[in-house]
Write a structure and sequence with these properties.
Layout: E1 2-8, H1 16-30, E2 37-39, H2 50-55, H3 63-76, E3 79-81, E4 85-89, E5 92-100, E6 106-111, E7 135-138, E8 143-146, H4 155-163, E9 168-173, E10 176-178, H5 183-204, E11 207-212, E12 221-223, E13 228-230, E14 236-239, E15 245-251, H6 253-262
Parallel strand pairs: 1-2, 2-3, 8-9, 9-11
Antiparallel strand pairs: 1-15, 3-5, 4-5, 5-6, 7-8, 10-12, 11-13, 13-14
Helix pairs in contact: 1-3
Length: 269
C-alpha cells in the first residue's frame, strides 16, 4: 500500500510565508503516517490574488515556494506536488506545477495547457498556455502524471498521460464559483466537480487526486473545496468538505497495475 496526503488550503491572500507555513504544518502533522506523496492546491501560496501573482511571480525554478517545499520534502521524507505558482520565464508568465522528490530535488514541472477564460475568467490575459510536453514523473513508488485545474475538462490530455504510463494523476486546483449563485446552482457546481473527478479516474483507470482551494476567495468568489481521491473504478475514497483541511489515504497501486493489463484503455482509441 502507498499513502497520499491531500491538503486543502484556504490561503491568506498574498501572504506566501503564512501559506507555506500552513502547508508545512499539515505535512508535519501527517508525517507519522509516512505519506509517499503530498498534493497541494493551485495558487495555494498566494490565493487568487492577481497583484501578488503577476507582480511577484516565481522564477523558472519555482522561487521561494519550491525552495521551501523542497526542504519540507527532505525533512519529512516525502514526494510533493507543489500546487502551482505563477512562473516567469523570459517575457512570459506560466501557471506551473513543480514536483519534488524525497531528496528535495525538482524532478519535473508542468505548465498549464488549458487556461480558464470562460464565464468571466481571465487567466489567459496574464498567463501563457504551457509550452512543455505533458508530464509523468517516475517517483520511487509510482508513475505520477500532472495536470492543473481546468485541464480536467479536456480528457485527451489524460489519454496522453496514461499512454505515458501514469498510475496516479494529480490535479492541483482552484475550482472557483460566484457567491451570487443560487443554492441550487452551487449544488450543481459541486456535482459537476465531483462528476469530472470520477470520470477522469474511471476512464483513465488511475487514482485521480484533486487538491482544491477551500472557502471564500474574495468578496464575490468562493471555491467549491471537495478535494478528492478517486480510485480507478470510479469509487471516491476521500472527499473533503469546504473548510481548510487535510486527509491521508492509503491506496492500492496493485489495482491500477492489474487493470492496465486486463483493460488496456491506454491503447484503445
Amino acid at each position: 500500500m502507498s499513502g497520499i496526503l491531500n491538503i486543502q488550503i484556504n490561503p491568506v491572500l498574498g501572504d506566501k510565508q503564512k501559506n507555506l507555513e500552513t502547508a508545512r504544518e499539515y505535512i508535519k502533522k501527517y508525517s507519522v503516517q509516512n505519506p509517499d506523496l503530498v498534493v497541494l492546491p493551485e495558487f495555494f501560496s498566494t490565493g487568487v490574488d492577481h497583484d501578488t501573482m503577476i507582480n511577484k511571480p516565481e522564477d523558472e525554478n519555482g522561487g521561494i515556494v519550491v525552495e521551501y517545499l523542497s526542504k519540507a520534502a527532505k525533512e519529512f521524507n516525502t514526494n510533493i506536488v507543489c500546487g502551482s505558482v505563477i512562473e516567469k520565464d523570459g517575457g512570459n508568465l506560466y501557471n506551473t506545477s513543480f514536483v519534488v522528490d524525497r531528496a528535495g530535488k525538482v524532478i519535473g514541472k508542468y505548465r498549464k495547457l488549458h487556461l480558464f477564460q470562460f464565464f468571466g475568467g481571465n487567466e489567459n490575459s496574464y498567463t501563457t498556455p504551457g509550452n512543455l510536453p505533458p508530464l509523468v514523473v517516475e517517483l520511487d513508488f509510482a508513475r505520477v502524471g500532472v495536470s492543473i485545474c481546468f485541464d480536467i475538462k479536456y480528457p485527451m490530455l489524460y489519454k496522453t498521460l496514461i499512454r505515458m504510463g501514469a498510475e496516479i494523476i494529480v490535479s492541483p486546483s482552484a475550482w472557483i464559483k460566484l457567491k451570487s449563485l443560487s443554492a441550487k446552482e452551487k449544488e450543481n457546481a459541486a456535482l459537476c466537480w465531483k462528476s469530472l473527478n470520477i470520470a477522469r479516474a474511471s476512464e483513465s483507470l488511475v487514482y485521480f487526486v484533486t487538491s482544491n482551494l477551500a472557502g471564500n476567495i474574495n468578496s464575490s468568489l468562493y471555491s467549491v473545496g471537495n478535494s478528492m481521491i478517486t480510485n480507478p473504478l470510479g469509487v471516491v475514497e476521500s472527499m473533503q468538505g469546504n473548510e481548510e483541511s487535510a486527509d491521508f489515504k492509503e491506496i492500492d497501486l496493485k489495482l491500477v497495475r492489474e487493470l492496465k493489463h486486463s483493460v488496456p484503455v491506454a491503447f484503445i482509441d
